[in-house]
Design a protein that fits this description.
The protein is mainly beta. The chain is built from no helices and eight strands. It has strands at 3-4, 11-23, 26-37, 39-42, 46-48, 53-65, 68-79, 86-96. The strands form two sheets. The protein has a five-stranded antiparallel sheet with strand order 2-3-6-7-8, with no helix packed on it. A three-stranded antiparallel sheet has the order 1-4-5, with no helix packed on it. A hairpin with a 6-residue loop joins strand 7 and strand 8 (86-96).
């Protein structure tokens, strides 16, 4: 199977995110992004260089004190190929500074 590249390999990323302060010390945030790739042509087929990837994430942050912030978020991932096609991740974080 011979692979011929007629142009450069291109990746394109799109990202949208926002944050909203609900109350003093409490905020919510969301982010979504997509990563796409150019196509490549082999002797048997034309396909994308890598699997297209989508990601969505939402989170909450609460400021306990001025120097202590608690955060939690949920991230959902999806790919058009590969061994793992869908994935969900939960994260928690404590920020402390002095």
């Amino acid at each position: 199977d011979t692979l011929r590249l007629t142009g450069p390999l291109v990746a394109l990323s799109t990202l949208v995110e926002g944050r909203y302060k609900v109350l003093p010390g409490l905020s919510i945030a969301a982010r979504g992004d997509r990563l796409t790739y150019s196509t490549i042509t082999g002797t048997r087929a034309t396909n994308t260089w890598e699997a297209i990837t989508w990601r969505a994430e939402a989170g909450v942050a609460y400021s306990v004190r001025r120097n202590i912030v608690l955060k939690t978020s949920l991230q959902r991932n999806r790919r058009d190929g590969g061994r793992v096609r869908r994935d969900s991740l939960v994260a928690a974080q404590v920020l402390y500074w002095f």
